[in-house]
C-alpha cells in the first residue's frame, strides 16, 4: 500500500511539475496580472455557466425532481468526463512511455497499473466538480431536494468518474493497440486519435439528440410557450429513460439516494450505488490489467526492435530557414502522439460546432419552420449573421489552436537548439506563428464553406469572413506566442502535463473575445445604417473596415511580439 | 579564436555565481580541455560560449566577433555537441541533419556529402532514416557530433562528448578533434575523464566553484611538477575546497 501511495503521489505531482527556467523579473506584478486575468475571464464566462445552471434549475423545478431526469443529467456529466478523459486514460495509462523508469523498481505490474489508473481518476475530478456545480446542484435546488441531496454531492463526486473510467478503458484499449500497431507511422497514429475523438464527440451529440433532448415539442415551439415545450420534452425523455435505465442502474441508485424520500430509500440507493460502482471499478481492473501488461511488454521490446536500421531514401533540399523551421516543427508535432493530438484535435472543433449549430437551429418537424429558416427571412440576416458567426468562431478557433498556444513550451528541453542556431529569433517566431495560422486557416476555410452551404450566408461574405478570421487569428497567435515565450513550460515528460493549468488558451480566448468586441463595435454603426437606408455599399464598407481592423491588429501584434521577444528569449535558462 | 573576458553568470533561482569572473583565451589550432568537478561551471561556460546563456557581465568573442553584438555571425562559426543529447526526438536522424544544414546555410549537396562521410565513419548510416526517439544514448551522441560538423565550424565545442560512445566511435571522435585542430580550427571540450584529456589536449583549464583555478599546457604541467594531471587536478580542486 505504501508503495502504491508513493507511486500515486509521484505520478500525480510529476504532471504538475514542469520546470520553468527563466529570470523572474517583476514576479509580484505578474501575480497581480494573473489574478486580474482570472477575474476578467470569470466575468466573460460567467454568463454561459449561469445560463446552463439556470436551465438546469428550471429542469429540476419542472420535473419535480424526477429521478430519471436526474439520472439523465448524471449521465450527461459522465459523458463530459468521458469526452475530456478518454484521451488522458489512453495516453497516461495504456500508451506506456515510462516503462524503463518503473520496471526496474521492486513493484508489481498491477501496483503500477492501479497507481496510473488512480492518477487518471484523480484528474477526472476537476471536470466532475465543474459538471456537478453547473448541472446537478442547480437541478437539485430547482427540485427543492432535501438535505440528503447536498450530503450526497461529495459521494457523487467520487462515484461519477467511475463509469467514464470503465467506458474510457474499453475504448482506449483497442485504440491503443491500433495506435501501437502502426509502429513508426506517427502521423497516422495522430490522425487516428483525432478521428476517434471526433467519433466520440459525434456519438455523444447523437445520443443527446436521440434521447429527445434537442427535439421539438408537439405543442408549439420554445418561443411561444417555453414551459409547456420543456415539460413535453421532459415527459418524452422520461419514457425513453425508463427503458434504458437498467443499463445505468448505479447512476439511478445514486440519484435515488440524492433525491430520497426517506431513510430506507436513501440507504438502498447509497449502498446499491457504492456496491455497483465498486463492481465497475473491479471490472475496469480485471478487464484492463492483462492488456496493460501486454502494452508494457510491447513498449520495452519496441525500443530495441526499432533501433535496427532500414533503407529509406531522403532528399536533402535547402528551401529557406523559415520554411525549414515550419516543416521541422510540423513534423515533430504531428509525430508526437500526445502533442499531435492536442495540437490538431482543437482545430476540428469549429467545423463540428457549425454542423451541431445547424442541426440545433435548422431542424424542425414536418410543416413547421425551423428557427434558422425564420431568422433567414429577415433582411438583416446577411448583415448580422456572418459577423456573429465570425466573432464566435474566432473565439473558439483561437482558443483551441494548441499549435499556436504553446509554440515555445513544445520545444521542451530542445529549446537550447533554437538558442544555439545562427538564425535570427524573429525568423523562428515568424515560422511558429505562420505554422499555427496555416493550420488554423484550413479549419477556417472549412468552417466558412459550411457556413455558406448550411447557413445560406452569401459566398462573398464567406470570403470576407475567412479573410478577417485569418488576420485576427494571425494577430492572436502573435500574442499567444509572446505569452508562451514569457512564461514557457519546460522539463515535461508528457505534453499533456506540460499544458496542465496553463492559462494560454484562456488568454487566447480573451484576446479573440476582445478583438471580436472591437469588430462588433466597428460594424454596428454600419448595420444600423444598412437597416435604415439599405444599399450593398454599406455592407461593403463594413467588411472593409473589419478587414482594416484585422490588418491593423495583426500588424501591431506582430510588431509587439518582435520587439519584446528578444528580452524574453534571453531570459530562458536551460 | 575563443576569448572570454571577466565573464560571470548567476542563474535566476541560484544564490551563488555559477561562473565567476572567468577570463580565458583559446587559440586557433588548439584542442583545449576544460576540466572540473560536477557543478563547477563547465556546462555554464560552454553555454555562454555557444550563445545559449547570456552572461550577466563580461564579453565572449568568437574569432574577433563579439557574441552579444553579433550573435548570428558568431554562432555561424561554432559547432556544438551538448551533454544531454536532447534533440527533436520525433524527427528522423536524416531530417534533423538536413534541418541543421539549412540553419547554417550549407548547400544541400555539401550536407549530403558530409552526412555520408561522417555517418559512415560513426556507423550510423543505416539508422539515419529512423526516428531519433528510437536511438540509443550513444547513437544520439553520434548524431549530435555529425550535426555539429555539418557546416565545418571554425570552433568546435563539445560538452562531455565521450560519454556513452563505444570505444571505436570514441577513437574516431578523438581523431576528428585532432583533424579539426590540424586544419587550424579550435576544439574546446569538457570532460570528467582525465586520461582522455591528457591524451588529446594541447592545453587544459581547470574550473572549480565557477572560478578558473589553473590554465596551462600539458607539457608545462608535466615539466613543472612531474606529477600526473590526475593528481594535479585533485590537489587543485581540494585546495580550492579548503579555502
Description:
The complex is a heterodimer of chains A (574) and B (243). Mean pLDDT of chain A is 78; it is low at 18-27. Helices cover 79% and strands 0% of the residues of chain A. Chain A has helices at 2-14, 27-63, 67-94, 99-102, 109-142, 147-159, 162-181, 186-210, 226-244, 249-258, 263-307, 321-335, 337-345, 349-362, 371-377, 381-400, 402-405, 415-420, 425-455, 459-486, 495-499, 504-533, 536-571. Chain A is built from 23 helices and no strands. Chain A folds into two domains: 1-12 and 23-300, no CATH class; 320-362 and 370-574, no CATH class. By secondary structure, chain B is of the alpha/beta class. Chain B has a single domain (2-28, 39-228), classed as Rossmann fold. In chain B, a hairpin with a 2-residue loop joins strand 4 (57-62) and strand 5. In chain B, helix 3 (93-103) crosses helix 4 (108-121), helix 3 (93-103) runs parallel beside helix 5 (137-149) and helix 4 packs antiparallel against helix 5. The longest helix of chain B has 16 residues, at 167-182. The radius of gyration of chain B is 18 Å and the shape is globular. The relative contact order of chain B is 0.18. The mean pLDDT of chain B is 86.
Amino acid at each position: 500500500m505504501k508503495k502504491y501511495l508513493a507511486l500515486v503521489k509521484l505520478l500525480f505531482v510529476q504532471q504538475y511539475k514542469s520546470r520553468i527556467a527563466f529570470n523572474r523579473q517583476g514576479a509580484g506584478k505578474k501575480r497581480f496580472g494573473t489574478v486580474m486575468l482570472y477575474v476578467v475571464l470569470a466575468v466573460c464566462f460567467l454568463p454561459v455557466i449561469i445560463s446552463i445552471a439556470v436551465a438546469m434549475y428550471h429542469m429540476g423545478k419542472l420535473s419535480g425532481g424526477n429521478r430519471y431526469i436526474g439520472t439523465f443529467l448524471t449521465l450527461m456529466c459522465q459523458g463530459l468526463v468521458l469526452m475530456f478523459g478518454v484521451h488522458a486514460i489512453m495516453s497516461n495509462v495504456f500508451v506506456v512511455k515510462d516503462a524503463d523508469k518503473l520496471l526496474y523498481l521492486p513493484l508489481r505490474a498491477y501496483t503500477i497499473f492501479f497507481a496510473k489508473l488512480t492518477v487518471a481518476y484523480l484528474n477526472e475530478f476537476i471536470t466532475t466538480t465543474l459538471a456537478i456545480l453547473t448541472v446537478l446542484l442547480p437541478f437539485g435546488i430547482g427540485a427543492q431536494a432535501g438535505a440528503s441531496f447536498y450530503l450526497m454531492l461529495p459521494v457523487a463526486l467520487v462515484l461519477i468518474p467511475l463509469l467514464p473510467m470503465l467506458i474510457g478503458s474499453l475504448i482506449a484499449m483497442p485504440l491503443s493497440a491500433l495506435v501501437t500497431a502502426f509502429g513508426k507511422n506517427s502521423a497516422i497514429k495522430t490522425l487516428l486519435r483525432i478521428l476517434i475523438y471526433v467519433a466520440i464527440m459525434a456519438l455523444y451529440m447523437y445520443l443527446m439528440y436521440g434521447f429527445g433532448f434537442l427535439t421539438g415539442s408537439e405543442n408549439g415551439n420554445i418561443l411561444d410557450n417555453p414551459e409547456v415545450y420543456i415539460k413535453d420534452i421532459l415527459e418524452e425523455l422520461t419514457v425513453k429513460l425508463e427503458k434504458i435505465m437498467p443499463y445505468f442502474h448505479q447512476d439511478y441508485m445514486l440519484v435515488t439516494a440524492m433525491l430520497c424520500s426517506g431513510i430506507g430509500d436513501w440507504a438502498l440507493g447509497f449502498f446499491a450505488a457504492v456496491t455497483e460502482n465498486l463492481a465497475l471499478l473491479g471490472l475496469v481492473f480485471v478487464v484492463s490489467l492483462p492488456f496493460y501488461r501486454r502494452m508494457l511488454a510491447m513498449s520495452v521490446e519496441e525500443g530495441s526492435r526499432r533501433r535496427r536500421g532500414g533503407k529509406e531514401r531522403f532528399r536533402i533540399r535547402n528551401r529557406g530557414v523559415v520554411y525549414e523551421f515550419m516543416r521541422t516543427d510540423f513534423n515533430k508535432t504531428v509525430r508526437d502522439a500526445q502533442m499531435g493530438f492536442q495540437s490538431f484535435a482543437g482545430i476540428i472543433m469549429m467545423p463540428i460546432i457549425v454542423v451541431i449549430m445547424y442541426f440545433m437551429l435548422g431542424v424542425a418537424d414536418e410543416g413547421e419552420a425551423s428557427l434558422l429558416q425564420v431568422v433567414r427571412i429577415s433582411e438583416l440576416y446577411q448583415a448580422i449573421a456572418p459577423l456573429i458567426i465570425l466573432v464566435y468562431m474566432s473565439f473558439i478557433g483561437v482558443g483551441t489552436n494548441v499549435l499556436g498556444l504553446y509554440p515555445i513550451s513544445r520545444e521542451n528541453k530542445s529549446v537550447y537548439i533554437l538558442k544555439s542556431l545562427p538564425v535570427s529569433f524573429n525568423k523562428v517566431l515568424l515560422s511558429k506563428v505562420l505554422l499555427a495560422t496555416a493550420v488554423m486557416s484550413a479549419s477556417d476555410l472549412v468552417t466558412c464553406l459550411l457556413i455558406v452551404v448550411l447557413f445560406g450566408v452569401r459566398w462573398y461574405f464567406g470570403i470576407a469572413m475567412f479573410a478577417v478570421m485569418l488576420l485576427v487569428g494571425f494577430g492572436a497567435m502573435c500574442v499567444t506566442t509572446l505569452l508562451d515565450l514569457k512564461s514557457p513550460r519546460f522539463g515535461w515528460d508528457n505534453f499533456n502535463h506540460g499544458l496542465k493549468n496553463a492559462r494560454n488558451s484562456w488568454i487566447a480566448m480573451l484576446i479573440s473575445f476582445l478583438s471580436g468586441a472591437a469588430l462588433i463595435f466597428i460594424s454596428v454603426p454600419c448595420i444600423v445604417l444598412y437597416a435604415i437606408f439599405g444599399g450593398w455599399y454599406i455592407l461593403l464598407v463594413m467588411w472593409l473596415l473589419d478587414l482594416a481592423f484585422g490588418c491593423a491588429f495583426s500588424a501591431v501584434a506582430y510588431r509587439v511580439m518582435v520587439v519584446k521577444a528578444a528580452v524574453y528569449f534571453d531570459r530562458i535558462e536551460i | 579564436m575563443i576569448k572570454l573576458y571577466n565573464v560571470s553568470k548567476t542563474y535566476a533561482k541560484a544564490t551563488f555565481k555559477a561562473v565567476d569572473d572567468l577570463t580565458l583565451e583559446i587559440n586557433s589550432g588548439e584542442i583545449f580541455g576544460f576540466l572540473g568537478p560536477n557543478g563547477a561551471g563547465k556546462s555554464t561556460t560552454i553555454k555562454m560560449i555557444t550563445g545559449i546563456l547570456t552572461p550577466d557581465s563580461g564579453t565572449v568573442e568568437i574569432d574577433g566577433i563579439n557574441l552579444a553584438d553579433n550573435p548570428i555571425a558568431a554562432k555561424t562559426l561554432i559547432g556544438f555537441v551538448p551533454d544531454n543529447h536532447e534533440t527533436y526526438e520525433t524527427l528522423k536522424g536524416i531530417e534533423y541533419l538536413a534541418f541543421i544544414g539549412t540553419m547554417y546555410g550549407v548547400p544541400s549537396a555539401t550536407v549530403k556529402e558530409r552526412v555520408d562521410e561522417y555517418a559512415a565513419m560513426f556507423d550510423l548510416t543505416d539508422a539515419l532514416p529512423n526516428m531519433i526517439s528510437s536511438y540509443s544514448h550513444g547513437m544520439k551522441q553520434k548524431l549530435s557530433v555529425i550535426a555539429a560538423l555539418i557546416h565545418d565550424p571554425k570552433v568546435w565545442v563539445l560538452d562531455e562528448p565521450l560519454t556513452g560512445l563505444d570505444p571505436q566511435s570514441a577513437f574516431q571522435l578523438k581523431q576528428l578533434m585532432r583533424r579539426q585542430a590540424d586544419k587550424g580550427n579550435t576544439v574546446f571540450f569538457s570532460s570528467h575523464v582525465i586520461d582522455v584529456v591528457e591524451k588529446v589536449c594541447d592545453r587544459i583549464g581547470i574550473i572549480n566553484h565557477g572560478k578558473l583555478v589553473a590554465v596551462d599546457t600539458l607539457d608545462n604541467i608535466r615539466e613543472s611538477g612531474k606529477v600526473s594531471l590526475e593528481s594535479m587536478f585533485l590537489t587543485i580542486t581540494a585546495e580550492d575546497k579548503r579555502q
